[in-house]
Amino acid sequence: MIEEIKQEAQQKMSQAIAHAQSELLKVRTGRANPDLLNSVLVDYYGTPTPLNQVSTITIPEPRMIALQPFEKNLIPNIEKAIMDSNLGLTANNNGNSVLVPIPSLTEERRLDLIKYVHQLIEDGRIVIRNIRRDSIQNIKEFGKEENISEDEIRRQESEIQTLTDKNIETLNKMQEAKEGELKEF
């Protein structure tokens, strides 16, 4: 049972890290990233459809995203969807595809994004610490029910703490990497 509690804690912590990572991918640095457009929905015959399902997304240059729609008549819809997305991007139509230049970040915007990254990572740390708290509580309750020695319970708590520290270190590294990207351009 204690092993199940530890496995559940690891699984939940991994999910928290995966969520933080997916949120970090949406933060616009000065570099082109196809994940930037994941939240954009295009009107495809009356149905809001993710951009990556109606076009091929490529990065021909470090600061350019190119979208090749599967149907040419979608080009105006794609342009409109990007303009309406509040990402601060402007789409250009060259007749066959849509080009989205990625503008440089201003220093003020860069600092705002760094604060946002700090908040995302701190939210992840809070989730991981809450998982630790719940897991330790479950171990203590199970230990009382099953008459497990206090030394064994403390050893299990220590393992949960080690797991927590490892996952928080992963979040810290993700934060450093994203800050490095933001400061790069």
Average of the residue pLDDT scores: 89
Major β-sheet profile: 4 strands, antiparallel
Uncertain residue segments:
none
> What overall form do the CA principal axes indicate?
elongated
What's this entry about, in short?
The protein is of the alpha+beta class. The protein is built from four helices and six strands, in the order αββββαββαα.
What does this structure look like?
The chain has four helices and six strands, in the order αββββαββαα. The protein is of the alpha+beta class and 185 residues long. A four-stranded antiparallel β-sheet has the order 3-4-6-5, with helices on one face. Helix 1 (2-25) runs antiparallel to helix 3 (107-145), helix 1 runs parallel beside helix 4 and helix 3 (107-145) packs antiparallel against helix 4. The termini are far apart. The mean pLDDT is 89.
Describe the secondary structure blueprint for this structure.
Layout lengths: L1 H24 L15 E4 L2 E4 L4 E7 L2 E6 L5 H9 L8 E2 L4 E4 L5 H39 L4 H35 L1
Antiparallel strand pairs: 1-2, 3-4, 4-6, 5-6
Helix pairs in contact: 1-3, 1-4, 3-4
